[in-house]
Amino acid sequence: MGLSAKDALQLRDTLQIAVVKCSERCLYHAAKWAAELLDALPQPSAADFKATQDLPSSYIHPAFTPNHDPAEAALEAKELSRYLLAKSLFDCKEFDRCAAVFLPESSLAEMLGTKVDDATTTEGREKQRSSVVLPSERALPQISQKSLFLALYAKMISGEKRKEEESEMIMGPQDLGTITNKQLAVISRFLTKWFDQRKSEGGDVAPSQGFLEYLYGMVLVKEKNDKAALQYLVESVQLFPWNWGAWMEITNLITRVEQLNEVTPKLPQNIMSFIFHAHASINLYQQGGEIANALNDLLVVFPTSSFLLTDKALLYYHSKDLVAAEQEFSQLLGLHPQRIDALDHYSNILYVLNLRPKLAFLAHLCSSIDTFRPESCVVIGNYYSLLSCHDKAVHYFRRALMLDRSCLSAWTLMGHEYVELKNTHAAIESYRRAVDVNRRDYRAWYGLGQTYEVLEMHAYALWYYKKAAGLRPWDGKMWQAVGSCLQKMGRDKDGIKALKRALLADSYYDSSASSFGSTGTIDRMTQMDPEVLLQIAAMYDRMEEEEEAKAYMELCVAQEDGGVTNDQGPGLGDSIGVRADSPGSDDGEGGGERVAAGEGTGVTVATSKARMWLAKYAMRVEDYETANRLATELCQDGVEVEEAKALIREARSRMEQTSMMES
């Protein structure tokens, strides 16, 4: 996906414009994102600069070009001094004063035909929702779109700040999550009137710049009106595609791959749409060569982009290739050693891989850069968790949430810590709050299932496990949890289907093995989890289907040598009957360790139990030589030695009796 010199210079100029426009509107995160992408572009050579002679004059020094719309340009020039004051106040975090520069409270109440304080009451909200224009309403002020956005955005941030101040202590008795931003109703009513006025005036108004659509989309998201929010956000990126904040809001609204495919044709066809599609796919836990190729193509254009390199590491992480993900994050940290963004994910990887020295270094690094960043607190919390200091880990996760109540990692990981501390009530509440932040977080759903299973509430646990499996249909750990829960509920037939689905799912991540053929059978050269095979065999045994039980017990024992036998295993294709999206369409960290195909697991508790079952089965069918061999192997392995010796004695006695009778 290499760009020509001319295209690269145009992209550079466009990103410069994006940085300036977002900075002017105090959209600092969007400006930072565009600036990082701009910095990741390779520096053009002297020969490339000559290509600017062929470009339109608007592409030369674009950061200093004025507004091209005459009406908007005149308004911006007229209110320049007030705009500079408002922006300075915003930068000083005096949000109410910033909003009052262009929209004083008294004038705003007159414009909307109601007191601003009415927005906080039920009666006032009903009055604002009315489509009837009240006699006391005034026309909207004639100010530029840039200043209007800044004033309304400051009012929204002020409401968010006040909401945080009024919220109770994290996980306190009154922390019910019911506190709302009281400014949203005012902003929503104002923008509704502004858009209606533009529609009534038709073509006599200046073209929209896309930022007010973005602001209205954010307001609608907070009001839980996702359908209308998506419509305005898509319109925003069509008008100004370089505001990454709008793309992120769209990403958070998309919960299914089908929804992403529906939205994609409506988006502008440029490099931003390409970046968005790759990022949204990773957020939906999608894997595959297409996403990896898309990221590699983008990295050709932006070789050192911290955002794209993070997405590449997360792609490995979601694919359960933790070693590759750790290497990518390590390289990213080398390129950008002061960047804290996404290091909470890196700490999760180091935790699962049990790399304590690296996690200690990362915690020290984050603490030295900025102790009061949510990501830093999560990293330190993970370090204490690895040391089994669960109380200290909870302290740091709570601190992360005090800094940002929408910090998803902190809610989920705090749930894990409460499970370790045997505080199931707090664990359930933490996981529920994580789900409220992001309903796509399969770890929170899985954690809820685990917690209810500890409480022996298997029906609840099964529901949550199925939600997790619906989000990660190709993660064997999710289906194993579903199958184990069904087994405890006595639903062996459904449990077998789910556990076979787990075997299929684990094979999805093993690209080196063609696990399942068209006949729906397992190739026994494929390494499988002996625990799952033992569970399937045990359920067949309870259902008194001994032949199936024997086949899976043999398959379990075969995993010691890498799953190598001479024939093919039991059919699976017709047994996958558990729906991935049940009951709805919508962990610890995903997946236990699996040994690569052909290496073998060696002797495990599961394979020893299977060997003991096979030895007893051989005794029942009077195959005493096989029983003697299996029991001898159990003695050599040092597992169930006394019972194995008793089997050996009985088998040899029976063989002696048989030989005497024959002679």
Automatic annotation (TrEMBL):
InterPro entries: APC8, TPR-like_helical_dom_sf, TPR_rpt
Region (Disordered): 563-600
Entry keyword set: Cell cycle, Cell division, Mitosis, Repeat, TPR repeat, Ubl conjugation pathway
SUPFAM superfamilies, per database record: TPR-like
TPR repeats: 408-441, 442-475
Domain Cdc23 per the UniProt entry, residue ranges: 10-313
Name of the molecule in the record: Anaphase-promoting complex subunit 8
